[in-house]
Design goal:
With about 325 residues, this protein is mainly α. Helices cover about 85% and strands about 0% of the residues. α5 runs antiparallel to α6, α6 packs antiparallel against α9 and α7 packs antiparallel against α9. The longest helix is centred in the last third of the chain and has 53 residues.
């Protein structure tokens, strides 16, 4: 475990400036998106007060924030990918050195897969997920602080509805898993049956049993079609449940905001921006759950790559005799 942690920190140590700058820009950009929603609140406050000058001022600031967010995201992505390419060059070199010195036979396909596909998976599912998680944490912190400045009840309501929106679709997890497994089984049976019958195609022609072949294939293809229809039905139910949760959540948040505005507990402009705050909070929570799941899924692969990077020390023995003398 200690070696694994040490290896994962190598990228930070070898290119610390680029690594820290990319993470910082990603987090600033994520917070800037929340800042854009905040300026929308101030714009609508200016509209309510019929202050055109203030409205134009906040509009200019909002456009500047948009430009900076776009710029920071792109710079962070470029710096991050450059740091990763430098790091993966080192990883490939260490893996190659390991394979040359471990005194084992390695298949070309296995080595090629380790140096290309495995590192590509690690790149996409672990390191890219890491920087996105950092940005989403910054987004959650920004939304939390912003909503607390308005009304703590809004923050609690957004958090509760976000949790409901995340976990409500899990009610269909088991039916979806069963439907997926059924499709896989039906497809396997269909391909197996089709392969078995086609092996004896010449015999079928000889005994003119083509009709039996068509009936059998139709039977198993019908099962596969029914399994696909069932899976599509569960997928549609899941989509409907997601849309229902999002719509109800947005409606409840909007109603709560309207109530607070009507009672002068929050500013008027929040009516326009509360949907953005709620969406940012939900998408960040959902994204962290998804991306950390991807990162955990690479644990075994990271351990395998770590083992393939271990440096092997070779000792050379020289069998030489000292000369008896000089002439």
């Amino acid at each position: 475990l200690h070696r694994l942690i040490r290896r994962q920190r190598q990228m930070c140590i070898r290119d610390r400036f680029r690594f820290c700058l990319a993470i910082s820009l990603q987090m600033i950009a994520a917070g800037g998106e929340v800042g854009v929603a905040y300026t929308l609140t101030l714009q609508f406050n200016a509209v309510k007060n019929r202050d055109l000058k203030l409205f134009l001022w906040w509009t200019v600031i909002q456009l500047i924030c948009y430009a900076l967010v776009f710029l920071f995201y792109n710079i962070a992505s470029i710096l991050w990918q450059k740091a990763l390419q430098k790091y993966f060059h080192l990883v490939r070199q260490e893996i190659t050195d390991h394979y040359f010195t471990d005194s084992h036979q390695h298949k070309v396909g296995s080595v090629q897969n380790r140096l290309t596909n495995d590192i590509k998976i690690l790149h996409k599912d672990y390191f890219n997920s890491f920087i996105w998680v950092a940005g989403m944490i910054a987004s959650i912190c920004s939304v939390t602080m912003t909503l607390l400045t308005f009304q703590w009840a809004l923050l609690i309501a957004c958090l509760l509805l976000a949790v409901v929106q995340i976990f409500l679709p899990k009610l269909l997890d088991k039916p979806l898993q069963r439907a997926t497994k059924k499709v896989s089984s039906a497809n396997r049976e269909y391909l197996t049956t089709l392969g078995d019958w086609l092996i004896g195609l010449s015999e079928l022609r000889r005994f003119e049993a083509n009709e039996k072949l068509f009936k059998t294939v139709a039977k198993f293809s019908g099962r596969l079609g029914a399994a696909n229809v069932q899976k599509q039905k569960v997928d549609q139910e899941l989509d409907y449940l997601n849309q229902l949760a999002y719509s109800l959540g947005d409606a409840l948040i909007f109603l709560l905001t309207g109530y607070l505005v009507a009672n002068n507990l929050v500013v008027f402009g929040l009516v326009a921006s509360i949907g953005n705050f709620s969406a940012a909070l939900f998408s960040s929570l959902q994204g962290i759950a998804n991306y950390t799941g991807k990162m955990r899924a690479t644990k075994k692969l990271r351990e395998e790559i770590l083992a393939s990077r271990e440096k092997i020390t070779t000792t050379r023995t020289v069998n030489a005799k000292a000369p008896a003398g000089f002439t």
